[in-house]
Structures are given as C-alpha cells and as structure tokens.
Amino acid sequence: MKIYTKKGDKGQTQLIGRRVPKTNERVNAYGTVDELNSFIGVAAASLPENCSDIQQELLEIQHELFDLGGDLANVTGKTDWALSGKAVSRLEGAIDRYWSEAAEIKAFILPGGTKAAADMHVCRTVARRAERLTAAIHDDDQMPTEALPYLNRLSDYFFAAARVVNHRNDVPDIAYARGKTVFK
Question: Where in the chain are the domains?
C-alpha cells in the first residue's frame, strides 16, 4: 500500500461523509488538533524522570485528541462521539492537583523555565487555537458536545502542568515584569 493517494492534489480532502476544500473550517479544526497532538509528543519526550505521571497523562490526552479529531472529521449525523465527559472531569482533577502542588502565583508569568515547561506552554497556546477553530464550527449540529469544554480545560491543564514541571525541578516561573496582581 502506498501512503500517497493523489486524491488531495486539487485542494480537496475527505471528511467522514463528504469531500470538502482543504480550507474547510472542520479541516482547520481537526488539523490543529493533530498539530497539538504532535507538540504533546515533543513535550512528553522532554519531560524529566520526576514527571512520569504527567508523561502518562499526556499519552492518554494524545489518544483523546485522536478521538476528537475523528469526531470533528465526521459529518455523517453520528451522535455517539468518542470523546466523553469523563475526559473533561479527569483533566479538571489533574489541574486541581497541579495547581495545589506548585507555588501560588499572583501575577501573569511568561512561558518558559525548563525546556519541558516551555514545551507545555506551546501545547497550551495550540490548544487555545484548536478551541477557537472548533468554536467556529460549533453551530453545526454534527459536533461532539464535549469538544469545547475539553479543549478549554486542556489549555488550563498545560498551564498547570508547566508550572508543576518547573516546581518539581526547582526552576522558578518567570514573572511578567510589568504585570499587576491578577490572581487573588
């Protein structure tokens, strides 16, 4: 079997249910979910040994993002989506654990610290873009109900995880120098 099909050579691609231009909003949304999945692979590979719990969570998130990409690509009228509310709840639990583990912050921080934390911040921003692009197709009735809550929590997860990676490795977060107290 060849990996190339030549079916996309004229700017079209196949959703599950119909052909669309490669510039289609759904293609942009699930393509960004796929991009995020790749950046998560980079972030997981850069994690130090004392973050094996985060590495395991990232693997689960990668599977969930693959599910979400398939859901977003499906326009057949399907209603039994692969992504479930359990994924959102699991992310919320991890966010709460990491938020309480890292030192309290009162102002904005800059992305960075350790390489792994910086990679997590890249994941955070790509997750936000995936959320925006998914929101653009949200009026479509062929959308998993958990897609937007999941992507929203996912960016929060990456923020909390980045802070924990720095904390566990005794690297302080980088305070935004011109910031004011925003977290009370």
Answer: 12-175
104 vs 4: CA distance, rounded Å: 50
What are the residues whose beta carbons fall under 8 Å from the beta carbon of 84, sequence distance 6 or more?
A: 146
Kindly state the helix (H) or strand (E) to which residue 122 belongs, with its residue range: helix 115-136
Query: For residue 149, which amino acid is it?
Result: P
- Distance spanning both ends of the chain, measured CA to CA: 58
Q: How confident is the model at residue 15 (pLDDT cuts 50, 70, 90)?
A: confident
Q: Count the helices and strands in the chain (H runs, E runs).
A: 5, 4
pLDDT tens per residue, range 53-63: 999 999 999 99
Cα of 16 vs its chain's centroid, Å = 22
Closest CA to 93 of 128, 43, 57: 57
Q: Which helix (H) or strand (E) holds 175?
A: strand 174-175
pLDDT digits (tens, 9 = 90+) for 123-139: 999 999 999 999 998 76
CATH superfamily of 12-175: Cobalamin adenosyltransferase-like (1.20.1200.10)
Reported as a pLDDT band with limits 50, 70 and 90, residue 140 is low
- The two three-digit tokens of residue 69, written as one number: 């990409």
